[in-house]
């Protein structure tokens, strides 16, 4: 068993970083299991080396933001460059805990990659539930590991149970399974979890419609909207999960179709809209791979209440929380790139009322399918 | 021999007077700069119906220059049996022994102090002072009090001063003289020992005896073979000084921590309390601690040593008592503080015992606090893993889990070369596969790193090294719990 033992490379860290910088310049190339396992080993080596030299283990993570409150918009938020670093060491107790969780999850990730298996975040949580105490703790550790290894979550073989739905003029395969929506365009299918395995995408759709809520999705399915409109409809059922956003982005990239978004006319609907377009703060390290800058806001706009003569009882006053959230969003730097969106949000705040998309159905149950969406698309009433 | 503790003898006013008389005797001895003896003789007289005790405090130091006329008023607070305090004193160059008598029962102030005819020295060269007073106080109480007091005074191991306590109970079996203790070991006469070295030595002896009056150390806890055991008794010292009003004030602090491996046996002589009694000496005299100084001591950042003060108080003997909330089992902390002026500006105390009672010098509280803290730091620095801060103790709790995870990363890897590299770095056999051995090794290294950080707190404030070189030095100050709005409800 004589094996030559290589000395630990003290330049390991710089190698690690520079390689990652290169990756971030474009598409990540070094995210296959073998490359990631090497990165994990490099990371472990650095910990062992530190300890052997009497130093506390220290982990330095790049910090990313997808927005800030810089009014100039020249802050670089949402780019692939980290905005500073976060040093996790044993100087603070909560850092020790965070490091403990990170390392525990990393052990699991290493096993998943070595065995070429997939596990859900929930699977990971249940491996040490008393230690993790909460799913969000695991989520954060996974994000930390993604930042550390410069990869996306799916590269770690960590998946989540997709909650998105899709229907319309689309066919694709995922691994061995074929999703043939073309046969019944108005039948809902779950968004695939292993988006990286999606292949053979075929579509005759003219556009993609993203709807915020499952209820609206079901309304359109019930109205057989896709039977008469060549489109693909996707819902993330509220705030979109990663598979939904990745799948949507894949469709947009592959099919080069325009994409429109329909959300409630309230601050949460607006926030969901911006999540699709600009990404989320939590996943900001991966924003460039998840956001869809091409997305257009189809509605509902504050002005739609008058235009479609919504009755007064459908207009609900903005709560204090709504106002706080709207004001907070107004200061987000990325809205400098979408001044009309920002203006609509201001209008919403000034009007002091909000309404749901379902309110459009108050006069006619199929107004959304028959009139609202077609007229908006035909008239170009989207922003 | 009794092994009574100080608490058994509440200090009477007579005892307080005697303590100050002993204090001034100490100063006279120190100023003589030659070998001196300080004797306390307690003799019971049965001549009258009411037993009276005669106390004689004598020393071979320099001559006393008592000016009782000025301060005699203070002495009226003390109740003497016959109301008389006699003083004999002489200097080396004197040809006679001066004799004074203070009659506290005398109503005419001018007649209270009387100089009696001097005694001849017959050409002999010696110096010294002898003060005698009588009291109706119980001899047992007095002996217990003196024993306790002198025993604590011995903590200082004042160079060149031997101390003895002689008791003559004059019981019915005839005159018997019990020499309770006499201390004059070699170290006392060494002129090379600094004050703090003497204090450390004396305090260590005290600790080994658990403060009992026995001559020997507690065999139950400290056998001869392990007296110097690194783990059993740990000492931290500090000597700090500052100049104030053209006088250099010196504060010496000695901390001794004992950590017994197991519960003391029933034969252990230590009192069961885990509280720390702080011995406070001022100009070579055991003194009661002031409430403000107690407050200063209690305000030390004890948490940085892993300690929580549950309560702080001043006991009946005037000692500060710090009760700990979380002292490790079978551990005890002893603290001694000695404040003195480097020169002898207190020479007048040597002549005037009364001044000591009423005009205490206020040493800088911050200086004292700093010295104690420095002594704690010294102990922590010298003994790895001792007195870890509360913060470090909390972080240390993560060491097993962190070690388990790091060992898991190594051992669950399917790359044997990588494993061998790590084992080499950990100085383990290249193909060590025994999980626990690897884990234990890593855990020890983590604990060592935590201890190093704790012992060098200033280092923890320095920027942590980057895992990746060349990265931005900008560190965003984000709150630990920073979570984006709605983030918990999405990204599932």
UniProtKB/TrEMBL annotation, chain A:
Its cofactor is Mg(2+). It catalyses: ATP-dependent breakage, passage and rejoining of double-stranded DNA. It is an enzyme of class 5 (isomerase). The active site is at 126 (o-(5'-phospho-dna)-tyrosine intermediate). GO terms for molecular function: ATP binding; DNA binding; DNA topoisomerase type II (double strand cut, ATP-hydrolyzing) activity; metal ion binding. Residues 97-158 form the Spo11/DNA topoisomerase VI subunit A N-terminal domain. One of its GO terms (biological process) is meiotic DNA double-strand break formation. It comes from the Eukaryota. It is found in: Nucleus. Its EC number is 5.6.2.2. Belongs to the TOP6A family. This is DNA topoisomerase (ATP-hydrolyzing).
Automatic annotation (TrEMBL), chain B:
One of its GO terms (molecular function) is protein-macromolecule adaptor activity. Residues 472-485 have a biased composition (Acidic residues). It comes from Stephania yunnanensis. InterPro entries: MTOPVIB_plant. GO terms for biological process: meiotic DNA double-strand break formation; reciprocal meiotic recombination. This is Type 2 DNA topoisomerase 6 subunit B-like. Residues 471-492 are annotated as: Disordered. Coiled coil: none annotated. One of its GO terms (cellular component) is condensed chromosome.
């Amino acid at each position: 068993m004589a094996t030559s033992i290589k000395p630990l490379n003290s330049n390991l860290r710089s190698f690690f970083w520079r390689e990652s910088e290169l990756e971030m310049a474009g598409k990540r190339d070094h995210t296959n299991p073998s490359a990631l396992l090497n990165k994990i080993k490099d990371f472990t080596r650095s910990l062992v080396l530190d300890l052997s030299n009497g130093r506390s283990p220290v982990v330095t993570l790049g910090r990313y933001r997808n927005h800030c409150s810089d009014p100039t918009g020249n802050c670089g938020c949402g780019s692939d460059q980290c905005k500073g670093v976060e040093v996790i060491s044993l100087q603070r107790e909560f850092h020790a805990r965070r490091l403990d969780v990170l390392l525990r999850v990393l052990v699991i990730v290493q096993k998943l990659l070595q065995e070429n298996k997939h596990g859900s975040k929930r699977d990971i949580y249940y491996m040490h539930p008393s230690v993790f105490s909460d799913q969000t703790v695991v989520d954060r550790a996974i994000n930390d590991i993604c930042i550390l290894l410069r990869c996306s979550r799916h590269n770690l073989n960590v998946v989540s149970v997709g909650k998105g739905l899709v229907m319309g003029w689309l066919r694709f395969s995922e691994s061995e399974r074929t999703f043939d929506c073309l046969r019944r365009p108005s039948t809902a299918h779950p968004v695939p979890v292993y988006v990286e395995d999606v292949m053979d995408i075929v579509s005759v759709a003219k556009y993609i419609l993203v709807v915020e809520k499952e209820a609206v999705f079901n309304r359109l399915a019930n109205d057989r909207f896709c039977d008469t409109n060549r489109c693909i409809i996707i819902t993330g059922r509220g705030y979109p999960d990663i598979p939904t956003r990745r799948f949507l982005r894949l469709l947009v990239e592959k099919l080069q179709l325009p994409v429109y978004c329909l959300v409630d006319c309230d601050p949460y609907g607006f926030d969901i809209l911006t999540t699709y377009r600009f990404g989320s703060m939590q996943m900001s390290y991966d924003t460039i791979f998840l956001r869809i800058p091409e997305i257009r806001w189809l509605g509902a706009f504050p002005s739609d209440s008058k235009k479609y003569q919504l009755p007064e009882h459908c207009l609900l006053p903005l709560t204090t929380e709504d106002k706080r959230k709207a004001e907070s969003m107004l200061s987000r730097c990325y809205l400098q790139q979408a001044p009309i969106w920002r203006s609509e949000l201001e209008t919403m705040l000034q009007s002091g009322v909000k309404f749901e998309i379902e309110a459009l159905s108050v006069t006619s149950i199929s107004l959304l399918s028959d009139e609202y969406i077609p007229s908006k698309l035909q008239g170009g009433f989207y922003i | 021999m009794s092994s009574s503790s100080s608490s058994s003898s509440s200090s009477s006013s007579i005892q307080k007077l005697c303590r100050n008389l002993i204090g001034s005797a100490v100063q006279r001895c120190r100023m003589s700069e030659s070998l001196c003896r300080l004797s306390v003789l307690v003799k019971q007289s049965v001549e009258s119906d009411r037993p009276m005790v005669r106390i004689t405090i004598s020393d071979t130091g320099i001559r006393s220059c008592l000016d009782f006329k000025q301060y005699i008023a203070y002495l009226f607070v003390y109740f003497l049996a016959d109301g008389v305090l006699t003083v004999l004193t002489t200097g080396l160059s004197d040809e006679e022994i001066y004799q004074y008598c203070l009659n506290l029962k005398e109503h005419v102030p001018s007649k209270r102090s009387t100089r009696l005819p001097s005694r001849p020295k017959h050409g002999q060269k010696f110096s010294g002072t002898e003060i005698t007073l009588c009291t109706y106080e119980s001899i047992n109480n007095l002996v217990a009090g003196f024993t306790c007091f002198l025993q604590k005074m011995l903590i200082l191991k004042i160079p060149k001063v031997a101390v003895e306590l002689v008791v003559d109970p004059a019981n019915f079996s005839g005159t018997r003289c019990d020499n309770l203790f006499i201390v004059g070991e070699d170290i006392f006469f060494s002129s090379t020992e600094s004050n703090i070295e003497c204090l450390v030595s004396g305090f260590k002896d005290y600790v080994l005896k658990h403060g009992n009056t026995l001559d020997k150390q507690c065999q139950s806890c400290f056998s001869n073979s392990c007296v110097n055991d690194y783990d059993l008794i740990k000492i931290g010292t500090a000597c700090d000084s500052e100049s104030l009003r053209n006088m250099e004030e010196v504060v010496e602090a000695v901390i001794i921590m004992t950590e017994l491996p197991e519960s003391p046996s029933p034969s252990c002589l230590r009192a069961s309390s885990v509280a720390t009694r702080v011995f406070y000496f001022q100009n070579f005299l055991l003194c009661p601690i002031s409430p403000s100084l107690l407050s200063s001591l209690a305000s030390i950042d004890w948490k940085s040593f892993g300690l929580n003060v549950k309560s702080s108080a001043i006991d009946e003997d005037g000692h500060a008592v710090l009760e700990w909330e979380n002292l490790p089992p079978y551990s005890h902390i002893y603290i001694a503080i000695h404040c003195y002026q480097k020169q002898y500006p207190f020479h007048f105390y040597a002549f005037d015992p009364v001044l000591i009672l009423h005009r205490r010098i206020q040493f800088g509280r911050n200086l004292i606090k700093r010295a104690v803290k420095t002594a704690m730091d010294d102990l922590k620095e010298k003994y790895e893993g001792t007195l870890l801060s509360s913060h470090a103790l909390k972080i240390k709790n993560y060491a097993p889990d962190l070690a388990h995870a790091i060992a898991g990363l190594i051992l669950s890897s399917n790359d044997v070369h990588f494993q061998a590299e790590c084992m080499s770095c950990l100085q383990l056999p290249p193909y060590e596969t025994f999980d626990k051995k690897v884990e234990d090794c890593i855990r020890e290294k983590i604990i060592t790193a935590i201890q190093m950080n704790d012992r060098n707190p200033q280092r923890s404030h320095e920027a942590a090294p980057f895992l990746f070189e060349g990265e931005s030095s900008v560190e965003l100050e984000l709150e630990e719990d920073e979570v984006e709005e709605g983030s918990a409800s999405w990204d599932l």
